[in-house]
């Protein structure tokens, strides 16, 4: 009977053919945000469905209010089933003049550093990453005649424009899409040699509030020294949100935050991420986060409060001597663990209201939020995938948290009741969403091998 | 020899004729800001010059880069000379449909309250006020054959559009315009029964500063919790500017502030101005000023720090999850007494810079400022004018400070070396700059009588 090494050998032997198939996929300009490319999006969906059929899955292109969704599945009665999610749509290519070669004519070249890369829009995000999974299925099928687990593949065509049709599709197809665990290949490695599994996503709470004072803008000469200035009030409130140690002072803010297990924190500490390394590339050098937390904790497992925008009074050229009637802050709060957006929104409201001086009112926009998503650190599937990645890369994968919300993962948890393993092979320099997007051949190749190992391990 | 009562009697007897002359002046639509009315501005200047000539002054219409300036003077060898300043231009009349009668067809009517008023654009600001002075000259001249002091009258035509041509004219005509004291009739009464002399004008310092953190806007999910947020930094700095007692904490801020004499403060206290009365009409009720100062002190004789505008990050609709690269505050500081704009600008710069955390930079715009103007409380001319007003109105005039800067007054002090008495008869409800501008007949009549008394007293 054929073993794992035979399958991995098939991946190696078939690499050129895999790249040829990926290149065909990359040639389709499936730009989802531009209605002019709607037919190309459908063509990409049909290409993906044909690929799934070729792999032995029962595949369909399903219409939605927007671009279609592709669903394919095996039903071999295997004891376990995985749901793989990815997307076939890509970002626009502007500014086109900054591309070295046309974005939809894939180019494979070896760089001065000896590394081979494939350049095209979607080379990494997400066509290349999706193909690591599909080519792993192909190798498994071709060598062993079957897959170690039953597989459902879900590919959407609106990820780059906010996935407007996906929640309704997911809710309507819940039974069909249910699996033991979800797999997403749309994230990155820790570095070119070290794989990563994204095990937590911070949730988010958006809100906006406006402090109002006088019922009109006032002349600062006539009223200055007596009339309440809402910008001053807002500044005082925002200044009170963090203490000198970077901790958020809103009562109850940390109530539902969980401490990460010691072994996770030990593993993070071992990575030795420094502020210089993380912040240096954007012109900063010192972290402003909670002083008693490591940098990785600060950006991954701790909640944050950020003012994303603020305005009040005159903001044009020159000066205008007014005491403005109002001042506004747009705020986002990153949530972790069990923090409830509604509860945190209420705590913020109380915090602000308690600090309102005489003559001021505050109005809040509707708070809009989603909870954090966390793969339980003791999840057996997480351990299996981690071991499989370690075997492929020769390094223990890093369990990373992402600050960016990926709403689909929360929906998998809440609607379909399953955890998601986010495993991807992108690199920081892949220029995703930018001109000259690329995917390293090594990432594609070892990524494909990784999925062979992971699917075998999850069985 | 004719006495003061004879002159006042002439004012009374000639009131209808005075109003007829003012009405002729009001019929000229001398809107300075609209080039379409340039010829009307010149016509108003010529009307004013003819009026001055009629009063026995040597008067000329002088060209400037903009609308002309009118200068008239007597040279009788009187021991003292006053310079009277006013303006012949008026504000635009939009929205025209809100006027009860056409703005340049003066209407004199008695209201339901029994008070007679003259309605027209410029009825108060400043044609009506200028005419109180000119009609006082007329009465003095007609009864006594001469004026008690030599008089220089300076009427400009660009006051409503920022007086762009006046500084150069003043500098070039300094010798000609020099006098013992300047008189300006472009301010208001304390209330309809109580006259006022504006004896101090706060100076002003405009500046703007921007706090910069990272060299680009950052994703608040990826960097939130670690990267410095310039909005937070700016909020902390602005929150530190005032202490809990409303006092500005910038070191040295109050160094050159003078205490007003006890008698001035006693007089202010006696007025009993309450926060309810002053702030109620704009929807406020409590003063935020220095707790140990009376409301009048706060708005008249104390320096203030106000943020007129603030912005940073995303300020459009909805949300954008960024940590902005920068945040900006536009600030104006009202100056009093001997405060030096350059010194205060330097103190602010040091205050902000000292509070900059790691990784932040700050850049300041060029600070632009003018010193406060103060008529010395022990000025003999101030005392004489005050006594004259008290005799006319039966009430001691209120010495008020104005927060608004009137640059011409600073120039009279700095270029011509003389103090200015700002004495006007406008009321809060005169709708200056608005539709249905009016001037109370009582203000016009007793204003004219007031100037007769003041000019006699100043001799």
Main beta sheet of chain A: 9 strands, mixed
What share of residues are in beta strands of chain A? 15-25%
- Class from secondary-structure proportions of chain A: alpha+beta
The counted number of beta strands of chain A is 19
In the CATH classification, which architecture of the largest domain in chain A applies? 3-Layer(aba) Sandwich
CATH topology of the largest domain in chain A: Aminopeptidase
- Structurally, the number of domains of chain A stands at 2
Low-confidence stretches of chain A: none
Overall, the morphology of chain A is: elongated
Q: Any idea of the CATH class of the largest domain in chain A?
A: Alpha Beta
In angstroms, what separates the terminal alpha carbons of chain A?
17 Å
User: What is the count of DSSP helices of chain A, taking H or I runs of 4+ residues?
Assistant: 15
Can you give the helix content of chain A as a percent range? Answer: 25-40%
Query: What Rg of chain A do the Cα atoms give?
Result: 25 Å
* The CATH superfamily title of the largest domain in chain A: Zn peptidases
- In quaternary terms, these chains amount to homodimer
Can you walk through the features of this model?
The structure is a homodimer of 459-residue chains. With 459 residues, the first copy, chain A, is of the alpha+beta class. Chain A has two domains: 4-201 and 372-458, Aminopeptidase (3-Layer(aba) Sandwich); 204-257 and 303-370, Alpha-Beta Plaits (2-Layer Sandwich), CATH 3.30.70. Chain A has 15 helices and 19 strands. The first copy, chain A, has helices at residues 4-13, 15-26, 38-54, 127-144, 166-172, 174-177, 220-223, 230-239, 262-271, 275-279, 295-300, 341-354, 380-393, 407-414, 441-458; strands spanning 58-62, 69-73, 81-87, 107-110, 116-119, 150-156, 181-184, 196-201, 203-212, 218-219, 304-313, 322-323, 326-335, 361-364, 368-370, 373-374, 398-402, 420-423, 438-440. In chain A, helix 4 packs across helix 15. The first copy, chain A, is elongated and about 85 Å long. At the A-B interface, strand 9, strand 10, helix 7, helix 8 and helix 10 of A face strand 9, strand 10, helix 7, helix 8 and helix 10 of B. Strand 11 of chain A pairs antiparallel with strand 11 of chain B, so a sheet runs across the interface.
